[in-house]
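Supplementary Methods, section 5.1.

A reviewer requested that the exact input to the structure prediction be made available. We therefore reproduce it here, unchanged from the version used in the analyses.
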Amino acid sequence: MENTSITKESKWVACWGNATSITNRREAVYAKDLTLRYPIRMCFSGTMLRFRFSNLTGTEPITLNKVFVGHTPITFEGEKSVTIMPGKESESDAISYAVNRGDTIDVSFYMAGYTQMNSGTFVTGPLSKGYYAYGDYAEADELPLDLTRSTNWFYFLNTIDVLTSVENHAVVCYGDSITAQSWPDYMARMAFGSNTAIIRRAVSGTRILRQYDCITYQAYGLKGATRFPIEMNVAGATDVIIQHGINDIIHPVGSDVNPFRPWSDLPTVEEMECGVEEIYVKPSKMMGLKVWSGTLLPFFGWRTYNEDRENMRQMFNKWLRTSPIFDGCIDFDAAVRSVINPKAFADGFDSGDHLHPSERAYEAMAQAAINKLVRRMPRYDHEELF
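The structure derived from this sequence is encoded token-by-token as follows.
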């Protein structure tokens, strides 16, 4: 289908997105006769939509037999079903589908045969929830209550683009579990009404320089050099926030403790800095993007915490705050740390595991990012929108 509606006053911009990674290895890795539905809130108005589906980390072809947005079929080179080969992604035809800012669209797809559920990611936040139902309900107005459960696993659906006004653009939030959790959703809520979409590219457990190839930790995803070029395929992106590196510091414990986490995996701070510059910053600049560093959060009390690791975090954060290679720094650490003990979270900002923030802290992180990246937002009614 040709994009005949594109004019000088419109362009494609990503309005929603997640990373695609290896799903958690459990006893059951296949689905059959299953419908997935993801409600997505539109941050922009537009006239057309297109959808990217990913089997990036799959080892077998997967077939989506029916794919719908609302009651409108999503097609792929004119076909209503699509087979995606392992390691590949498929972009749909551009669909004529008018949306208004604030609309919620339902993206639903049905898998009839045995389907390897190897490509997806787990995310949380007030805007991130999906549903699965046993049976073929891709075209149904509502999923049957007795056959449906909610899920925070986002399988295969990777990115949604909207043909929208030229002043609109996307900001990419790139990171690990802290970014896979709530702060990008809160940032998206705060940015609603502006010309900025927030696109999340985050996978729990990921590291800048290493990755796990064992099934125990495969869900921790791909290393930065592999992830980043793929995940930065974001239409209309102008900025990227990099909040990544804490897992490089906290994971290694020695092969005598955990055979998959040798001390040889522990980088130096200089290696982390070089990795960020070579893997993230230089490619981003070549894409014409502004790059914002995000400082690493406190982890005092986490099970692998020690003073040496804390010193690494402090040194790395100092570089993130001061290096001229960045267009600016979002000081997430300053937004959530305790005044009394800066090595720890402020009161009420610790989720309880001493590594991941609470919901209040995620809101504070979002506010810190909004203050840097989104300016002159028009006033709007929070109660009406949320």
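The chain has nine helices and 23 strands. These observations are discussed further in the main text.
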